[in-house]
Amino acid sequence: MAQPKVAGDTRPSVAELIEDIGVGKAQLIILCTGGVVLFNRGIQMCLMSILTIPVASTFKLGPNSQGLLSTLLFVGMVLGTIASGYLGDRLGRRFPVCTSAILVSLFAALSALANSYLSLLILRFVLGFFMAFGDVPVTALLSEVTPKRWRIPMRAASEGFFDVGYTYAAFLATLMDPYLHDLQWRKLLLMASIPPGVLGILTIFILPESPVYLAMTGDHVMAQRILTSLKRMNGVPGISVDYKPPMVESASIPAMEQLRIIFGNRYRRSTMILAYTTFVINFFYYGGMYTQPQVMQKGHGLMPGWEIVLGGPADIFGILFATVVAQLLPRRVVLSFAMFMAAVGISCFGYAGSVESRSWLLECVYHFGVLGFYWVPAMTFIVLGQLSVETFPTVASATGGSVAFAMGRVGALAAPLVFENIRAQTGRWNIFCYIAAVGCLFGMLLVVFMWSPPVEDDDPFESAPERIRPLADAEEGKNRHVQKRM
Fold first, then answer.
1. Helices (runs of H) and strands (runs of E) counted in the chain
2. Using alpha carbons only, what angle is made at residue 87 by residues 84 and 92, rounded to the nearest 5 degrees?
3. First-to-last CA distance in the chain?
4. 116, 160, 181, 328: which has the highest count of C-beta atoms within 10 A?
5. 478: pLDDT confidence band, cut at 50, 70 and 90?
6. Is residue 475 classed exposed, middle or buried when 0-12, 13-18 and 19+ CB atoms within 10 A define those classes?
7. What CATH homologous superfamily does 253-452 map to?
8. Percent of the chain with pLDDT over 70
9. What is the C-alpha to C-alpha distance for residues 322 and 338, in angstroms, rounded to an integer?
10. How would DSSP label each residue in 8-51?
11. Which CATH number fits domain 11-241: 1.10.3720.10, 1.20.1250.20, 3.40.50.300, 2.60.40.10?
């Protein structure tokens, strides 16, 4: 058990112990079990985009009823994100992750058994809630068990689970019907739920709690037990897990106190910029996913199913690219570049996609825009996701991340509604693309000219203020201890 704090205590903090334990088998196991949250989300996001028409055909749905299925899914995701932040800071990281891993597979399978439109609506709402319930806690958990220089690679690897899930669902659908017209949506939902369901069960038995969270909440016995397990799996048994307790210990703090932290003077600007950029990149991404089926039959492209399947490698490119550049460049540069490329990509898609018979050059422009819906968000989500939990102190990191993630869900929710209203009023779908491009450019300008890291004074919630300093270091382009940490 950690001893009481004494003057001149030379023992390492929990964060410093994580650095000493390093990266190895322990982080790989946590990644593979916690990653089921993103694997699940990738599957369901893909199925949402390709099963809308088959489901509408089964229940004889009109345009409004059809759109309501996606709307309620995203409403559930907004509420699930908000709940996950508070509970992740109050009950720990493990509970929301395990709950999400199991219940997403369960409610996805139950959706396949829905015998009425109303029952399907309810199930989609609950599914959306649990899809988002583990997002922020798993991001915080992966960050807290990983040394600083490996946090971006770890975050990138976790995003890879989303791409694997998305590609898996697209591949199953394409095997059924490469044109995505006559899909057996009930069978597809059931088949897609089996692998994540098995992984979810394993997660319950394998995934540990964050030792950083346990130390902050005063559970030093369990924190040391988990640290001992981590060092054993990583092959460094000689390290002592006797750590210096945090300067302030709190079993939990009220929700309003968490909000006061992230919207206080120190973090307000960072919170608002993270919230806006997360909103606009989700508006761009989910708007693009919704818009794609409207135009993918035009021109000389591939069959729709294979076109979606090939988006997976584009996502992997974005992940690898982000992993490299985020290790070498300040976060401001990486995020600004990603927002700029989002604006360029969706503009190319909107322009070339509106042409009925495309030349080979316009076909290249169109596919550049289509692939931009995959690799650009992959890069942006890695940087934004890591910033969203690392900007704030441990006792409010999941809450801070949930605010940013929730705004992303709002962007995802708004995109189909804005698209349909614009198309209904103007008869032109590509105006939506240009609006999204302007929003991305504005986000880029915010990051370039308005971002400033939190003030570097002592953090009353941390024993190691270095946890906040990496943002400042990255913004200054310094090379010490953080450029490689996410």
1. 21, 0
2. 110
3. 30
4. 160
5. very low
6. middle
7. MFS general substrate transporter like domains (1.20.1250.20)
8. 84
9. 9
10. T--SPPHHHHHHHH-SSHHHHHHHHHHTHHHHHHHHHHHHHHHS
11. 1.20.1250.20
